[in-house]
Structures are given as C-alpha cells and as structure tokens.
Design brief:
With 210 residues, the protein is an all-alpha fold. It is built from nine helices and no strands. Helix 4 packs across helix 8 (162-173) and helix 5 (106-115) packs antiparallel against helix 6 (125-134). The longest helix is centred in the first third of the chain and has 18 residues, at 12-29.
Length: 210
C-alpha cells in the first residue's frame, strides 16, 4: 500500500468508539438481547455525569485499552468515549441501519441535515442550533445542543463518524495539544465543524461532454 493509500491516523479512543458502535449496531440488527440492553443502558446515561452509572460505564469501556493518563479519573479521553457512545445510543434508537459510519464528521452530517430543510435551510432552526453549538461557552451547554441535533439526525437517518466525534468531545472535556490553550483547542474543533458544515456535498455525477 502506498503512502497516499494509507488509512488516516485514528486515535485509541477513535478506534475504540468506532468498534463499539459497530458491534452494538450489528447486535441490534441481529436482534441480540445483550446489545439491545447495552444500548438502552447507554441511552439512559446520556444526560448523566460520567461515572454515575456503573452499568453504562461497563458497556462503553468494554475492551478499552489502558487509559491515556492525561487527567485524574475520568481522563479527557474517557470523557470523549463515554459522551460519544451515549450520543450514539440516542442516535441508533429505533433504527435498524447503522448510525455510525466511518467518515462523516459532525459538521458534515449536520450540514446535510440543514440542506434537507429546503431552500430556507441557511436560516432554519438547524442552522441556529448549530451556531449555538459552536459558540457554546461550556461543555455542558455543548452537550445540550448536541443531544438536540443528534435527535434531528436520527429523525432523518443521517449517520456520522462517532470515532471522530469522540476525539472532538475529548477536546471539549479539556484535552489539548502541546502548547495549546483550552480556548485554542475549542476554537480548533468548532472551526473544523463549521468548515465541514459549510462544505457543499460531493457530487457523484460525472461531467458530460458537449
């Protein structure tokens, strides 16, 4: 495989969340009781603090490798994992098709959702909610807007990459790069969401010769 064909780097938490989301959605499609119960536990924990629900913790971190030790319990990475998987459980509710799909970022998925609103989508409620998300002053406020937007994505059966979301949510929790301030890290994530939100969808059609 050439360098240009190599898969993009995926962090430990990204890979873990992608794997768990895939396992849970596959179990749901197979009508397997343990996975159905696991998703219900995660949904119930969506509005709770990490660590409050031991059952949800066990579901979210099944097979999780050693923690990254970037903070006393819970680490920023653990926070990202937990928040991403509880949101995934909300997104997957009553859906047979997987709501985790490798690739689409949160911004891209919500951009697709906004365009589904029709010709006035640039001023519609989805755009207003997204703008509130990317200008939120706290992780708690961000999570509140996220839950609302995930509910809209579920209603329209629009998937997103929950591994990527876990990375972003670890930044909202406080994770930064070397030399980066907390505000700079948040701005980096919000700008990436906004960029992906604003990009037009890729066209699969080929140009015709006149």
């Amino acid at each position: 495989m050439s360098t240009s064909e190599q898969q993009p780097y995926r962090s430990t938490i990204n890979r873990h969340v992608a794997r768990r989301a895939s396992e849970l959605s596959a179990g749901l499609r197979g009508n397997e009781g343990p996975e159905i119960a696991a998703l219900a536990k995660l949904r119930r924990a969506a509005s709770t603090e990490i660590g409050d629900d031991a059952a949800a913790w066990q579901v979210a971190f099944l097979g999780f490798p050693d923690t990254d030790n970037d903070f006393p319990f819970p680490s920023f990475g653990e926070e990202g994992v937990y928040r991403a998987l509880t949101l995934f459980a909300l997104h997957q509710q009553s859906k047979r098709e997987p709501m985790h799909a490798e690739g689409p970022s949160l911004g891209a998925a919500i951009g697709r959702l906004a365009r589904a609103d029709g010709p006035d989508s640039h001023t519609g409620p989805i755009v207003r909610r997204f703008n509130a998300l990317v200008t939120a002053d706290s992780a708690e406020e961000s999570r509140w807007h996220l839950r609302s937007l995930i509910g809209q994505l579920r209603a329209h059966s629009i998937p997103l990459d929950y591994g990527r979301l876990a990375d972003d949510l670890s930044v909202l929790a406080g994770k930064t790069r070397n030399g980066e301030s907390r505000d700079e890290a948040l701005r980096r994530v919000h700008l990436r969401w906004s960029r992906d939100f604003s990009r037009p969808p890729k066209s699969n059609s080929k140009p015709t010769n006149n």
